Amino acid sequence: MGDTERDSKRDADRRLGRRALIVGGAAAAVGTAALARDELAHLWWRLPGVERPRVAGAVDFRGARWIAASPANYRRADRPDDYAIDRVVIHVTQGGYASAVKVFQDPDHRAAAHYIVRKDGRVTQMIRELDVAFHAGNREYNERSVGIEHEGFVERASSFTDAMYAASARLTAGICTRYGIPADREHVIGHVEVPGTDHTDPGPYWDWDRYMRLVRSAMSPRATKAATKTTTKS
C-alpha cells in the first residue's frame, strides 16, 4: 500500500471514528434528555417561578369540607402527571376529629393525610389529591397514594360506625375511579401494610371485608357517575 493510499485510509478511519462518536453521543444525548424530562416532571415545583394555579377551597370529593393542612406537612406536586396514583392508604387518628385537624395544621407535626372521615360520616379534605401528603411514613408510598384518616382508636370497635364506613367507601370508590385503581386489597391498604412503618392502624376491628364490599358497590355505574371529581385540577 502506497503512502497516499495509507493516508487516505487513515483519513477515512478518522472520519468513521468521528461519525461513530457523533452518533453515539447523539444517542447518549437522547437518552440523557429522556431521563432529564422524566426527572423534571417530578421536580417542576422546585423550579424558580413555577407554580400551578390553584382554586382556594377546591375539593376533590363532592361534599367534603375544606380545611387546609400546614404546607410543612405535604409537598406541592401535579399528580398524576408527575407521580402515578395507584394506592389508597387507610389510617385511624388515635384521637378525635378536632385533634387530628389541629396536628395536621401544625407545621412541626410534619405529617398529614389528604382526608379525615368523622364518625358521623362527614368528610374533611386538608390536602389536594394532586399534592403529596406526608402520611404513610414511606416516601414512595406517599408519592403514589391518597391517605384517608378515620376518627377513632384502633383498639375500640365502636370507633367504626356505619356512617363512617359508608362515607369512606364512597370516598375510596371515587379515588379508585379517578385514577383507575383496582378496588382490591392490593391497592386499598392499611397503614400497617406500608413497608417500613411501625403503625398498626386501622387495627383488628376494621372490617376489611365489609369495607371492600361497600367500595365495590359504590363503584357501580350510577354510583361512579355521582362520585366523579367535580372540580378541575386548578
Automatic annotation (TrEMBL):
EC number: 3.5.1.28
CDD domains associated with the record: PGRP
Domain N-acetylmuramoyl-L-alanine amidase: 74-203
Top EC group: hydrolase
SMART domains per UniProt: Ami_2
Domain of life (superkingdom): Bacteria
Pfam annotation, one family: Amidase_2
Reaction it catalyzes: Hydrolyzes the link between N-acetylmuramoyl residues and L-amino acid residues in certain cell-wall glycopeptides
Record keywords, A-Z: Cell wall biogenesis/degradation, Hydrolase
PANTHER family: N-ACETYLMURAMOYL-L-ALANINE AMIDASE AMID
Protein name: N-acetylmuramoyl-L-alanine amidase
Species assigned in the record: Streptomyces cylindrosporus
Lineage: Bacteria, Bacillati, Actinomycetota, Actinomycetes, Kitasatosporales
